[in-house]
């Protein structure tokens, strides 16, 4: 019974993170298409709503249920002997740290800069510059492929590191491609008002 409840909570956390990251993805892509400041500000606000209201609670639920399952059912530190579980934990830890230091902080700063631009009545140079930053764009575009890899590891439970390594390379390559392609498709700031 305990395992079933923890597994349910873990799946619920994964669903929340997935839904929230898709919402962030869509709001970010929409913000890149907008040139008027007011709708852009609304899209940026939606990014914050999805992060704070859906992604963060999902991550905390995953952290709590996952840690409890590892301690109770996978022998604590013995999980390091299972490539699928060690890979999931490593990717989750990386995502948790990166998501709360690079990506989430960037979107919080973007929201603050957008509010300042609204108060000034025009797109400020600081907002234009922030929108062009590469590292937070890359980490943002890495979120969904990395989550997919985490879920694939949990679903397939491989006994070697092959899926982890190939999946990681594909995730990084996809995030790199999107980091280069999306800003070129939607060059923000040049004609924003």
TrEMBL record:
Name by which UniProt lists this protein: DUF2269 domain-containing protein
Keyword Flavoprotein found: no
Transmembrane parts of this sequence: 6-27, 48-70, 82-107, 134-155, 161-186
UniProt keywords, alphabetically: Membrane, Transmembrane, Transmembrane helix
Keyword S-adenosyl-L-methionine: no
Record Pfam families: DUF2269
